[in-house]
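Input for the complex:
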Amino acid sequence: MANITYIESSGQTTTINLNDGWSLMQGATANGIDGIVGECGGSCACATCHCYVDEARLADLPAPSAGELDMLENVAAERRPNSRLACQIKATAALEGLIVHLPEMQE
Amino acid sequence: MNADDSVVVIGAGQAGVQTAEALRTLGFAGGITMLGDEVHAPYHRPPLSKAWLAGEMDAAQLTMRTAEVLARKHITLRTGVKVSFIDRAAKQVRLTDGSSLPYTGLVLATGSTPRSLSLPGASAKGMLALRSRDDASAMAEHMAQCVEKQLGVVVIGGGFIGLEVAATARKKGLTVTVLEAAPRLLGRVLAPVLSDWVAALHRSHGAELVLNAQIAALEVDATGAVSGVRLSDGRVVPAGLVVVGIGVTANDQLAAAAGLECERGIVVDACGRSSDASIVAAGDCTARRMPDGSLVRLESVQNATEQGKSAAAALMGQARPFTATPWFWSDQFDKKLQMAGLSMGADRWAVRGDMAGDLATASFSVFHYRKGVLIAADSVNAGRDHLAVRKLLDAGLSPTPEQVADTACDLAALAKQ
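Predicted:
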């Protein structure tokens, strides 16, 4: 389990307690956080669950796969060094307290 | 439309949800009621043949929107509801419980239904298709029984659904036989060389593929359960589960009964408009009229979301045509196939990357040309190529077969020119 804080571009902040194995995308859509779309249902195929991970915590996350890096080239908002796809980040205790910022647009 | 108006959305899948939410994004303040015929809140379909079937995710993870989340957007979700009739003159939707719902704008997002086999035994126990969450749950249960009793799985149809289910079944250690009537897998979509490659992939994972398969009969045991599939050469492939994946038909019955133009689906223009100005349609149930007069039927997430956005705009009096390049994907084993464009009528193909090498590390794309013009590309674990091709096709650009085959040629850079 991990408490994840989502900060939308409007400043709207929501903290969600995610069960292990849940992706950050699933946590967001299940709780109606509009800054994450997740059109493809978590298949790493649409790049509409773009998020910016708190830079200080990047090392706590498994590195992105080649497929995720490919899809990150297609995000609608600016791609930054801390850009990730929320569907590819699974909650574990190591992510406790993680903050992710959501971009202004996803498509 | 204004706050006094009301919209009824028939269908609570990807297209229905997208249309309803897009109406709110566009500022529609009136009532929205979404009617789902399943008992579940809207859920993601793509994982059904993969992670859900494999038992790797729970129902809450599959859920796209709960009723509570929709209610926050003032979208009323009614599940387990069936529509019996659309009364266009009275602008009412009649439900099977006898009640009626008035509408100013109506959205048809009724989806599609898997085709069934027209053979004796087609409805025997253990004959399953995959469309809904309940279908997939039933399939998972049958697979568990097959594991326990050491029975095999036969997949009829070597299309995306069939092959994804075959891959999931192999991962569970089941004996899998895929029966395809055509000479190659995914013949309507992929280039011939890629069909061969996909066949090699499945064989390398231990599935048996029978191409040009002619099914003579379904074998049904004394308990009424399917026990095997008999081929026209007399061979019987034993099975505890037969998965039927031979395509779908659009759910256009309500629309047709209401007198809307239908042809293999509810006919819509690029903006999602039906032949009735108050009625729009989106997703699997539609057949989109193209500028050349032809009809295109697509069954994909992108089609549902794009048409949903167009349909919502149309109800708001805005023209938002869906003109983006169609794209699709399929996950089989550890491979992601990503298709961009429509490959019908291709007469020449070019390969980028190493297609002949080790299956385990494969990453390549096959480009389709028709009369010298790039029309589509299929990528395997090569998302970068896929995204570049989408941009190229969106921009109407057509690099030569020589250019795309040269991995030193930067496709994304070509798309930016």
